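During the no-cost extension, the postdoctoral fellow (Dr. R.K.) reprocessed legacy sequence entries with the updated structure-token encoder. One reprocessed record is reproduced below for audit purposes.
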Amino acid sequence: MRGGTLLAVAVALLQALTDLPARPIEESPTSKRARQARRHDLWRAAHPFAPDVAVRIICWFPAGDRAVVALIGFDTKTIGDVFYASAAIRGEALVDAWLRQQGGAP
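Re-encoded structure tokens follow.
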């Protein structure tokens, strides 16, 4: 059932992002800035502590009313802070690729 739990948590986090009326201005229990990001204002969506599940979604808000999901990390509890160090680098690279695809410069 663990795989189903991971998926359910990921879907709930994606729904929380969908329900945001605009780009977050302040951190909340669900949305926090990815402090390791340097070039883009990345945010992470997270759920309350669960001993067996740790899902994080790294996203970026190019406009006030939409989010671009850059990266989804499943089972981040096993690697802890290592996830965040690499997630910011990978997330920013994916945002750059998205910007190029949209015709903008990274």
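The two ends are 40 Å apart (CA to CA). The chain has one domain: 2-101. The remaining legacy entries will be reprocessed before the final report is submitted.
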